[in-house]
């Protein structure tokens, strides 16, 4: 349930936030699963490396997708807001099957793409079937409310996290990445406690949430996803705590899901992966 | 243009953020204009005093609305999240012509109402014609992205303002209140610069933005509205500045509008009030 209610749209493309540091060479299962969703060998994918300040980020992902056998991969390095009105690049965006946003700084994405034809096209086309993935900063940027930056640690306090408007492909989840690696439960809890309508999704590195059109999340990757569900929150001191004081939250539900596990943000139902017969 | 694009809905009710400290006795023109929109003598209005910790806030506004001649005014003092499932109060909300949210602390509103049937009903009914006003904290809470708290001063820097998810009646504006009185241009610029898709609306005290279903804003009250339009932003250092460093923004458009002035967030057109023949 979003700040505004999202209407179920079966035509929507997959939305795939990735926790950063996804395996790229040995067994790139997340990138491969994304390519599969986009149509495998027939698929065309645009890479948006805007979050990164490194010049080779775009070309590097283009190579990775080519190695995974896509029909075409192309980097669209939007550097500034003027770039976001380039007809030739918008033409590419209007035709591809998938878009992949790299890591870096999510504020580079929101300040560069926000309010431009690129952001608008990504939303419009995703609602009509374009698949959109993002890793690290690219993952943070995907949802309606984005964690721009924050502090480490497990205990929430009001000035621990900075929220900003994101791309807005979905409003049902609030994503955080490098989750276990950077001790981010506190800042995700803080972000959720401001307005407990969304579901928190903490993504470990090399772990992705494949969000289906029906809002079911499927876990792919070597780590875990921490689902934080505040829908049964009984009480919170967020509105009365001083900014650096710890905040009390009563009634949070938490699920740790690994590869194959699922969670539906509408029904709030979590399912573990089926145990395999032998490992 | 929102993080997600808002679709023009001619059935939507008026959305009326007020900058706080509106005149209540001598010549309560803002409250009277709101009552007029709700149907005047025939109108029924629910007051939501949740933002306030004072017990008489609700009854006081009920009295004010009764003095303005409404058919019925009633206070719904949602104190906690359990209250937000009360069938009798939801029944009232489902029937009134207008809702008025008082001042106080906007985090009390978002943490108490967020994700509950009350928030959902306010969105659903506003999209079908319910008029919703809010003053001070009640104004901040109205939009998709809400300023939760922040610092004074004219120059933006990254940790100057805390955003949080709001009620989400509209995503086209980002509201700040007590604007001139508390020197809040810096924090509004900061909030906008994170993702320059929305229009900033800085409301002076005793001044309201009457937002029509077609997204035209009309100014009512004794002060001014500062409209901050970042749609032609050429460059921003928000993504690279350290958190307490000043941020450079090139290409912001600013309008100061007074009583009778209008601004349309879709066409970006501002119009001054027509000069009157004699004053």
UniProtKB/TrEMBL annotation, chains A, B:
Any one GO BP annotation for this protein: proteolysis
InterPro entries reported for this sequence: Class_I_gatase-like, Peptidase_S51, Peptidase_S51_cyanophycinase
Q: Where is the active site?
A: 136, 178, 205
**Pfam families annotated for this entry?**
Peptidase_S51
UniProt keyword Metal-binding, yes or no = no
Enzyme Commission numbers on file: 3.4.15.6
Q: What molecular functions are annotated in GO for this chain?
A: carboxypeptidase activity; peptidyl-dipeptidase activity; serine-type peptidase activity
Which EC class is the enzyme in?
hydrolase
Which reaction does this chain catalyze? [L-4-(L-arginin-2-N-yl)aspartate](n) + H2O = [L-4-(L-arginin-2-N-yl)aspartate](n-1) + L-4-(L-arginin-2-N-yl)aspartate
| Keywords for this protein | Carboxypeptidase, Hydrolase, Protease, Serine protease
What NCBIfam families does this protein's entry cite?
A: cyanophycinase
Provide the function of this protein.
Answer: Exopeptidase that catalyzes the hydrolytic cleavage of multi-L-arginyl-poly-L-aspartic acid (cyanophycin; a water-insoluble reserve polymer) into aspartate-arginine dipeptides.
For this chain, the family text in UniProt reads: Belongs to the peptidase S51 family.
Q: What is this protein called?
A: Cyanophycinase
The organism is Engelhardtia mirabilis
């Amino acid at each position: 349930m979003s700040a505004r209610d999202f209407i179920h749209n079966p035509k929507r493309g997959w939305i795939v936030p990735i926790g950063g540091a996804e395996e790229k060479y040995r067994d790139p299962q997340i990138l491969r699963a994304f390519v599969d969703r986009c149509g495998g060998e027939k698929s065309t994918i645009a890479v948006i490396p805007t979050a990164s300040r490194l010049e080779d980020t775009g070309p590097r992902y283009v190579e990775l997708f080519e190695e995974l056998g896509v029909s075409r991969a192309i980097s669209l390095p939007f550097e500034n807001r003027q770039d976001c009105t380039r007809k030739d690049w918008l033409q590419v965006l209007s035709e591809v099957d998938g878009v992949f946003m790299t890591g870096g700084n999510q504020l580079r994405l929101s300040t560069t793409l926000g309010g431009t034809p690129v952001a608008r096209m990504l939303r419009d086309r995703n609602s009509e079937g374009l698949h959109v993935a993002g890793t690290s900063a690219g993952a943070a940027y995907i949802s309606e409310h984005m964690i721009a930056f924050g502090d480490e640690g497990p205990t929430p306090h009001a000035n621990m996290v900075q929220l900003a408007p994101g791309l807005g492909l979905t409003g049902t989840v609030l994503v955080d990445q490098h989750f276990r690696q950077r001790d981010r439960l506190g800042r995700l809890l803080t972000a959720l406690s401001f307005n407990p309508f969304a579901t928190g999704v903490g993504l470990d590195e090399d772990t992705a949430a494949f969000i289906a059109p029906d809002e079911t999340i499927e876990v792919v990757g070597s780590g875990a996803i921490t689902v934080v569900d505040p829908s049964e929150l009984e009480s919170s001191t967020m509105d009365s705590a001083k900014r650096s004081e710890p905040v009390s939250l009563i009634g949070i539900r938490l699920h740790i899901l690994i590869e194959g596990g699922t969670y539906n943000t509408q029904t709030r139902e979590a399912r573990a992966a089926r145990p395999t017969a032998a490992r």
